[in-house]
Amino acid sequence: MPVALVLLLALSCLIQSHGAGNVCDLGRRPNTRPHSVSILEFGAVGDGKTLNTIAFQNAVFYLKSFADKGGAQLYVPPGRWLTGSFNLTSHLTLFLEKDAVILASQDPLHWQVVDPLPSYGRGIDLPGRRYMSLINGYMLHDVVVTGDNGTIDGQGLLWWDRFNSHSLKHSRPHLVEFVSSEDVTVSNLTFLNAPAYTIHSVYCSHVYINKVTATTSPESPYTIGIVPDSSNNVCIQDSSISMGYDAISLKSGWDEYGISYARPTANVQIQNVYLKAASGASISFGSEMSGGISDVVVRDAHIHNSLSGVAFRTTKGRGGYMKEIDVSNINMVNVGTAFLANGSFGTHPDSGFDANAYPLVSHIMLHDIVGENISIAGEFFGTKESPFTSVLLSNISLSMNSDSPDDDDSWQCSYVEGSSESVVPEPCFELKGFESSYGRAVAL
Ligand SMILES: *[C@@H]1O[C@H](CO)[C@@H](O)[C@H](O)[C@H]1NC(C)=O
Ligand SMILES: *[C@@H]1O[C@H](CO)[C@@H](O)[C@H](O)[C@H]1NC(C)=O
Ligand SMILES: *[C@@H]1O[C@H](CO)[C@@H](O)[C@H](O)[C@H]1NC(C)=O
Ligand SMILES: *[C@@H]1O[C@H](CO)[C@@H](O)[C@H](O)[C@H]1NC(C)=O
Ligand SMILES: *[C@@H]1O[C@H](CO)[C@@H](O)[C@H](O)[C@H]1NC(C)=O
Ligand SMILES: *[C@@H]1O[C@H](CO)[C@@H](O)[C@H](O)[C@H]1NC(C)=O
């Protein structure tokens, strides 16, 4: 057996022993609640014009009293339910019937403004505070947002225009956000037009996202589908996501704020997903990764019409790590750069970052991948101070389009070391074997 293969096998055992491969298999509790009330009972009007924020807030407040009685369901019947932001509560199921559409108000006054997340120190778009998301969970247990494929529409156009014209007062809201929550399920729903992220879980554990369709316009600026952020035990499966920027992005905080908050994203499993990312990457890691990202398994993904397929982004000042990441069984069609790793990517929250906080990027496995109509196979740009190490490529076959540079240039590499086995087109020499670009054997 070739040495590279032995090492790949050893590494895959190592990754499996970390358990990331099992997150989706864990049994989910049946989400039947002994009590159910309809939003109609709280005076809501589903005409697409009446503002129902108070109805949602009152319904959730009422259903809090069922938390110790097995929880309750808030039922949203067919209709167009306009609302500003509201909070969920523990042991609650928000259920959207088929043809029920929750519509986000386009008046920023209907969106509460809240403090920035401690691991970011500021909003993502602007310094300072940020708009609260449309649907929020804060310090909850056992909460479910589901339905018979009902829709949550963020009507994001207004926010995208304000972002583009630099007229936002605060950073844009997300569509659904869970903070410091456990045992969270989002399933069987369609999400449209998120102002920024569609589903953001931050400081959470046991997050299960299943059968979700999420779409924003390809022109929407920096919209992202699902963002597991400083969260562990996360499963994303059987979903279809098409976004302006990234489809799925794993994050863990920004520079000095993320380093001091020190909450990693770990044990994430992503499987059976259909992804498109117009101006970003279908699956991205970082660039905010200061709390560390590890033990991630991605398998059975279809990536199409994306600027990049799988991207690792970081920069000096981030600290943290991205390691033990196993990406396999991927099918890519019409993708600019299949694999991108950029160690000089992204900006800083403020001038307080530590320029000597170098990120570590290591033990990345990409294998069993086919691609069609790809322009650039791989771009790996580590930095002198923190080269990427142990990047393992195996069984990759990419058919390149005529936009691609000469065969010799379809991989572009600097400050990276790794190995490869059965990769077409042939990778850069840095990724070809165990003699690294520094002329020493690479120890795994
Ligand atoms: C929603 O929860 C946040 C805390 O995350 C709190 O600041 C806000 O006042 C709550 N809003 C309502 C309407 O309860
Ligand atoms: C999910 O949505 C589908 C399609 O609308 C529906 O047939 C199914 O019953 C839903 N599943 C659950 C668990 O509600
Ligand atoms: C939900 O609706 C979307 C949009 O209409 C559709 O593409 C998707 O297949 C549906 N999902 C399910 C589970 O029925
Ligand atoms: C190849 O992919 C590019 C996008 O990267 C797309 O614009 C083009 O239409 C695709 N070509 C074919 C033949 O599908
Ligand atoms: C890395 O990111 C920086 C900053 O966005 C950019 O200038 C540079 O071109 C990127 N490198 C690659 C190979 O994409
Ligand atoms: C190579 O990867 C393809 C999927 O892209 C898979 O069908 C095939 O079985 C793999 N070959 C080996 C030898 O593992």
UniProtKB/TrEMBL annotation:
Protein origin, superkingdom: Eukaryota
Leader sequence residues: 1-19
InterPro entries: GH28_Enzymes (IPR051801), Glyco_hydro_28 (IPR000743), Pectin_lyas_fold (IPR012334), Pectin_lyase_fold/virulence (IPR011050)
Pfam families: Glyco_hydro_28
Keywords (A to Z) from UniProt: Glycosidase, Hydrolase, Signal
Family indicated by similarity: Belongs to the glycosyl hydrolase 28 family.
PANTHER family per the UniProt record, alphabetical: PECTATE LYASE SUPERFAMILY PROTEIN DOMAIN-CONTAINING PROTEIN (PTHR31339:SF72), PECTIN LYASE-RELATED (PTHR31339)
Descriptive protein name: Pectate lyase superfamily protein domain-containing protein
Protein's organism: Brassica rapa subsp. trilocularis
